[in-house]
Design a protein that fits this description.
Layout (H helix, E strand, L loop, with lengths): L4 H15 L8 E6 L3 E8 L4 E9 L7 H21 L6 E3 L8 H11 L5
Parallel strand pairs: 1-4
Antiparallel strand pairs: 1-2, 2-3
Helix pairs in contact: 2-3
Amino acid sequence: MNKSKQQQRTRRHQRLRERIKGTETVPRISVFRSNRHMFVQIIDDSTGKTILSNSIELRTKNKAKSAKTEAAALIGETIAQKAKEAGISKVVFDRGGFKYHGRVKALADGLRKGGLIF
């Protein structure tokens, strides 16, 4: 029974979400990555509200893969700065079923560089 990559990612995400819960004091950072965009949300799961969100279009004039990774790191630093302004310093990281590699890792490193603890 071959499953599509999307179905496999969804199953991995469901397994992660069983363990990862965001609260008011320690919200969850949710990541979704597509080929062209990257979306990041800071969510309080106890109320079901999105506290902060940000997205970035990863398409650049030069089609180098490193440009997408650099853009992911930049969005990490930006959302970390907004979270600090909102009084959030500690979070849990939800990689959304994606491998902790490449753009997702660059985003997490950007969040850490911006001062968030997870």
